[in-house]
Amino acid sequence: MTTSAQKAVWSALDEISRVPEDVQADFCFPDRTDGFLPKGGEHAKYTDNVDLCDRFCYWHHHRALHAGHPFIHTPAYQNIVNSEAELSCLAQSIVTSLWDFFRNEEQVTIRDSSYIQLCMYERKYQEDDRTYLQDRHEDGHLITLIKPTRDGLVIFLNDREIPVHLADDEVIVITGSLLTLLSDGQIPTMYHAVRNPKMELARKSLVYFAIPDLQRSYTTLLGKNPINVAAFADESHRAFGNTPLI
Ligand SMILES: [Fe+2]
Fold first, then answer.
1. How far is CA 28 from CA 42, 44, 53, in A?
2. Which residues surround ligand 1, an ion (CB under 5 A)?
3. 79-119 pLDDT per residue, tens
4. 160 CA to middle of ligand 1, Å?
5. Please, what are the domains in the chain?
């Protein structure tokens, strides 16, 4: 990450814990999967295994709806806005490079369909009988950028669980099944999970989900076969317990 991206992301992760409860309660929009959303609203895809975290979602295309709420005057909100600006640029450059790699002239834009999510894994939410705080799943989008505050993220390569360790200036990029579908199976889907630590440890992560513009039609990158990206992305998004994308 650039220095400015690091500054925004680390500050957002710090500041989100300082938002007073009444300000959080005023900025809660579950009908559009936006704002502060308490534990219980999201589960691992196609399962009933609830993610053991509170979360906060920010959509660039919903920003005008945030006017008038006290939360937008806090450092947390400003740093989340800055994080979205930084990570949307990074994700767009990766997606553009992929489309160029496959020699596809029809470029894809992501910013207005994508969103930021902060996950707050509180110590009090840990359950002894859970192996994972967030069970094994894949995100179903194009790519996901993940910046955690501590270890715990694991990826699965050929069903082997591999821990992810990131330096302070690093973010991991993982692939979703929508990219696998669009690349005619050439780019595999990366399954991942968040380990339940052996001791009580709070953990946070800031995640950017890259979703392509759902207003236009697509063909696959190699075979040029028509593909209903909007229906696929929406079905996948709802499988986590979220409200529809379209
Ligand atoms: Fe995920």
1. 14, 21, 15
2. 139
3. 999 999 999 999 999 999 999 999 888 889 999 999 999 99
4. 17
5. 3-238 (2.60.120.330)
